[in-house]
Amino acid sequence: MTTPDFWIDRAEPDDEAAIEALLDTCFGADRLTKTSYRYRDAVAPVPELLLVARRAAGVIGTVRCWPIAIGSNFAPALLLGPLAVDPADRGRGIATALMRRALDLATGAGHNLVLLVGDAAFYRAFDFVPAAPFGISMPDEMPGRLLVKELLPRALDGVSGTITRWGWSRGAAERAA
Ligand SMILES: CC(C)(COP(=O)(O)OP(=O)(O)OC[C@H]1O[C@@H](n2cnc3c(N)ncnc32)[C@H](O)[C@@H]1OP(=O)(O)O)[C@@H](O)C(=O)NCCC(=O)NCCS
Hints:
Elements: E1 7-10, H1 16-27, E2 51-55, E3 58-63, E4 65-70, E5 75-80, E6 84-85, H2 94-108, E7 113-117, H3 120-123, E8 129-130, E9 136-137, E10 146-150, E11 161-165, H4 166-176
Parallel strand pairs: 5-7, 9-11
Antiparallel strand pairs: 1-2, 2-3, 3-6, 4-5, 4-11, 7-10, 8-10
The chain binds coenzyme A.
Coenzyme A binds at residues 26-27, 81-85, 90-96, 118-119, 121-122.
């Protein structure tokens, strides 16, 4: 068995330019117009879940998570993504390593639910399932691409509704209190 020549690490502020360049390469420069970015606008990613895959030469993969809320009760959850690996390094288990570390860290930090927008065929390996049957939706996103994973058994009990951006939902909840 060969030892991987990459490792998973917390992203440092100095990695930001390399991460943005990698995301442009993987998703195109118009990526910020994607529906899921509405939930990242003016919201900080969860710092301990901001991960990169590195080798000595630099960043070759990245994943992040953002706080979101679900439904009229504003149930807290994470929105995972974007997940990206440099085209030259794909098929070597780097995305799998990033996903497993992010999910382990999220579980350890006490998060209950993770949502993402992506290919069910890829994320099934990490036990993500379609969110629509639970009554969870992201406006303007194709229902089949919104996926969810429970980090805690029964975390989805009583959780349904539309996803809202964290700052908006927190503010609305405070106003309603
Ligand atoms: C998707 C992506 C992150 C996978 O990165 P990677 O490091 O090559 O992934 P891994 O090596 O860990 O591959 C894990 C498995 O998923 C499979 N896979 C990759 N993309 C897939 C897809 N879209 N659908 C189904 N399976 C897929 C691989 O073939 C591999 O299968 P195997 O273990 O049976 O060989 C990478 O291709 C990428 O950056 N794509 C562009 C951005 C993107 O689409 N991101 C995900 C959506 S947010």
